[in-house]
Write a structure and sequence with these properties.
The mean pLDDT is about 85. By secondary structure, this protein is an alpha+beta fold. A five-stranded antiparallel beta sheet has the order 1-2-3-4-5. Helices cover about 30% and strands about 30% of the residues.
């Protein structure tokens, strides 16, 4: 079971983080949408490079980045320990 780290506006969730061997962290966001299927995006930390953005507006991505920036220290810490799923099992 995947536990979301945080619910953002309109049921958008930060659902997963993955630390790569080079130390960067990929943060995954999703929102179910009955008409469009899942909206999704990924943000790389540090640096806040966005990719695979499907269904979100630039204004939404800007708001999501503000939240990720304010919680980046937690996201990085959880990612080093095995991701959000690991934190939920503690």
């Amino acid at each position: 079971m995947m536990y979301p780290f945080m619910t953002l506006d309109d049921n958008t969730e930060i659902v997963h983080s993955e630390m790569k061997p080079d130390g960067r962290v990929k943060v995954y966001l999703e929102r179910p949408d009955a008409a469009l299927g899942f909206r999704h995006a990924a943000c790389w930390l540090p640096g806040y490079q966005w990719e695979d953005v499907c269904g979100f507006t630039d204004a939404e991505i800007s708001r999501f980045q503000d939240v990720i920036e304010s919680t980046a220290h937690l996201i990085l810490e959880f990612s080093q320990e095995g991701g959000f799923e690991h934190a939920a099992s503690l």
